[in-house]
From TrEMBL:
This is TonB-dependent receptor. Residues 241-672 form the TonB-dependent receptor-like beta-barrel domain. It holds the Pfam family TonB_dep_Rec_b-barrel. Keywords: Cell outer membrane, Membrane, Receptor, Signal, TonB box, Transmembrane, Transmembrane beta strand, Transport. Residues 46-151 form the TonB-dependent receptor plug domain. InterPro entries: Beta-barrel_TonB, Beta-barrel_TonB_sf, Plug_dom, Plug_dom_sf, TonB-dep_rcpt-like. It comes from Chryseobacterium oryzae. Belongs to the TonB-dependent receptor family. It is found in: Cell outer membrane. SUPFAM superfamilies: Porins. It is a multi-pass membrane protein.
Amino acid sequence: MNRKVLSVGLLSAVFWIKAQNKDSLQFSKIDEVVITGQYKQQSINKSIYKVEVIDAQQIKNMAATTASEVLSQNLNILIEPNSGSGDSNAKIMGLGGAYTKVLIDNIPVVSDQGMGNQVDLSKINVNNIERIEIVKGAMGVEYGNNAVAGVINIITKKNYSKKVSALVSLQEETVGKDYDWYKKGNGRHIQNLNLGFRISENWSLTADVNRNDFQGYKGELEGYKYFSDNNDKKRGYNWLPKDQITANAAVRYSKNNTSFFLKSNFLNENINFYNRVIEDLPLGNGNRTYIANDRNYFTTRWIHQFNIQTKIGSRINYLGDFSYQSQERKSQDFVYDIPNRKTLSEEDKKLFYESKVFYSRGMFSNFLDNEKIDFQLGYELDRTSGFAGSETFAFNNNGININRSIFNYANFLSAEWKVNNQISFRPGVRLALSDKFDSQYNYSFTARFNPSEKSDFRAVFGSSNRFPVYDELYTFVVDNNHDIRGNENLKPETGYSLGLFYDFSNSKTHAWRTNISISAMYLDVKGRIESVIISNSPLKYTFLNVNNYNSLLFGGGFSVRKDQLSFNGEVSVMGISQSLTTGNMNSPENYNFYTEANFSANYTLPKVKTLFALYYKYTGVQKQFTQKALENPGQTPEYVLGEIGAFNMMNFTVSQPFFNNHLEVSLGVKNIFDVSDVRNTVISGGAHNSGTGSQNLFYGRSYFARLNYQF
């Protein structure tokens, strides 16, 4: 640990010594604007909510390729990758992806399990992202169901200042120690093309395409070519290979009080699963070969979106979002001859998941010709239809496919009262109706006080519901070894949050610019859905609204910048208390606290414009009660305190522009401390069972080289 802290300190000292006299590109502009939770786009300094912003320059400095890589640097956001499926979900304030709303340009993103929740963040590439806005805490009034822990709003680029703009980017990375330019099974290869056309003063077009070819990480395994006589189950990958292609096209119009954009996003992803179990296949005449039953997974997603901002009459502002989205996942089984490197038989592709969503959200504001009082009236509706094939493990359902649809409609109202230049309030309420669940009410109240131009106080109260996901409603796995059933009578969970925030800024033109922030948050989730043992003999599980969840968060941060040098740092302490129930046994409800901290430093040499960027994050030991593994079905349940081990992450990048900034070359290293597995005695034993294993979070240290050319 001392060596790691020393490394951070030495690199920080290098940045400090080299301070010079020019504004850095890495800092947020004074007039930076946000849209998340606002009546209209406005300065972040005037936002009534505490909005965290990660801009395009920061994303570029990180050399990140997906949204999951960017967000992993943020405190109290843990990106939990599934090394088997390749998915990555955000965990905010200790709650999983089902409790966080993920939006692209204010539109919730379709996923396997709902609108905007359980979104795989590794499927969102960052090549056309303008900024990412994050609001933590329950945001049910503004964003509806599942915004319990917060909202992540990804804002994409839509217009360009130049008549014609073209950017080509190539990035090559090692995956751990593995890399090869040609051979299958080594490295990560990324290509991107981004085009922009300013047709006229009012019209612009954008288009981009990105390919992210991840060739898998073997870890302690030996890859897809491996086989052995004793079937030691070392074939395959800890992180599955996947090839991902995304494309975007958008047209934007803006004139006077009206602007709109029409955008389409396409995703195609192929994931390769290589079975660890190898079979011996006799060929006759004493010959034999080795085969495996492998499987490929295919995901296709379309997001079509239309957004309009205009005035109705001479006063009323209207903001409307309309979207149609679809996502389907297919699988294909095949028998692979390992020594001879060929496919012996191949089945047809089977559709096992499908989601189709129509979504619309509209907001009307500026009803009164009054600078102090404003109202916002809004509506939101979505119709989500889902399909789960009987061949999927969670929905075997005795061979019957599952088709379900849910329609939700909501109206929300809020009012903003600016008492004077220093004090403002915003209360809000939402009524949500559903053809599946009872009516839901959400409330919010936000207050902002700025005693001077340099300081702000914010108090934010909010509530939000979390609707049950597809698995919790419709799982049906009943065979000789399992009896796990969903519960269609589940009720939505209800979450409440209260946040207090203080910010101080000193923005003198020719001096050190400093920002200091302090925050405290409380989150309470009632009626939490959990998998519960309803019978020990025979052993049966179902899902019930039985648990409560509470978290406390205290944090502080700073940023210091002058000329070409900047430092940013944050620290937080979070405590989690939750009640787990199994039969008549309840877990302790003590708060278990853990610490997180991050630090970043950026420096640009003034004459040659060489950029040095460092990013560091520490996550402390996390403790959580979990049910002890049972030796037999009739044994009395017992809860023990499991742990997730501490880990440190650090990335370093050097970038150099050439030819009047048209060409840029970047080199760097990710995960300098070579973290891969983290000790975990909470989840490794399975649902409700403690374990003694580890959790695979990363794939070790990797090196990258990136080439950008701006035409």
